[in-house]
Amino acid sequence: MAVLVTGGAGYIGSHTVAALLERGEEIVVLDNLQQGHKEALLGGKLYVGDLRDGETLDKLFSENNIDAVIHFAANSLVGESMKEPGKYYHNNVYGTLCLLEKMNQYGVNKIVFSSTAATYGEPENVPIDEYDRTSPTSAYGETKLAMEKMMKWFDTAHGVKYISLRYFNAAGAHASGKIGEAHDPETHLIPIVLEAALGKRPHISVFGDDYATEDGTCIRDYIHVSDLADAHVLALDSLRKGSDSAIYNLGSSTGFSVKQVIDIAHEVTGREIPVAFEQRRPGDPAVLIASSQRARQELGWDPQRSNLKEIIASAWNWHSNHPNGYSK
Ligand code: UDP
Questions:
Q1: Whole-model pTM?
Q2: Which of 11, 122, 207, 277 should be mutated for ligand 1, with most atoms under 8 A from CB?
Q3: Residue 321 CB: number of other CB atoms within 10 A?
Q4: What residues are annotated to the active site?
Q5: What is the C-alpha to C-alpha distance for residues 255 and 99, in angstroms, rounded to an integer?
Q6: Ligand 1 atom nearest 207 alpha carbon
Q7: Domains delineated in the chain
Q8: Can you give the residue ranges of the NAD-dependent epimerase/dehydratase domain (predicted)?
């Protein structure tokens, strides 16, 4: 039996592929390599193609004995989604529809889905649990919520079981030092802070210091990418054991402000990190912290690497050894 990992050459996808390989799973990856990197794949059989390309999906479903899918392939930038919502609906929502229809056609009825805290929007409660209101403040979050809902109806009608994992802030890099975060353009806080530490950027722009938080900067819940990867493996096991569809938050249940992240990065790297304060970024809630009780209780998830200092140290190991990401 093989697991299809869509978007397996991306940041979280490639760390999940690594975790699956470590326990001997057979892996098929579908990635259009728009954001993903061939070099990020530590193994598995790669099909370069798009979710919306029926021929590629027919080929990979007929050539491999796939029993489950882990679905990462999507556009994932909040800012971009506000400017180009059509791109997000097309790739994320229509792409997922194409995938679910092919899964149904080929009798594959298990899917682990890469979802996001952006499905909640401005939270009503802190920490956020899975029963809280979902009211996305970005087109990106809205498309991920639409994808989750589509899965629900494919479950009702066709018995396709899904586990949706709503991540908070993924960060860090694989312990081997071989794979890490390499987005182009990079928009995420921790890699940008480390690029500033490396002198690749003149400074880190802090988006807003007038939020209603202790130091005025936004608070986020950072979780190590390999802890996220482990949750996908546990979710896959759960579906294979016949569990029902479910939604889980994945976070460390602890919040750090942007200023705290910069201070810890300074401590870890020993480098100066120049800071410039700028306007708020549209769509940013002040505080996002997960309650991950449900994932801990039901999946047995036990994140081991998500102390912020450790996360930043692992990211620094990757960035300082790969200042140009995957390119030579
Ligand atoms: N942020 C920042 N400067 C940057 C990038 C991010 O101040 O160059 C802030 C951003 O406003 C948010 C936090 O850092 O409050 C985390 O942002 P990121 O894009 O990493 O993740 P998000 O929470 O948007 O998923």
A1: 0.97
A2: 207
A3: 11
A4: 140
A5: 35
A6: 7
A7: 2-171+222-250 (3.40.50.720), 189-220+253-321 (3.90.25.10)
A8: 3-251
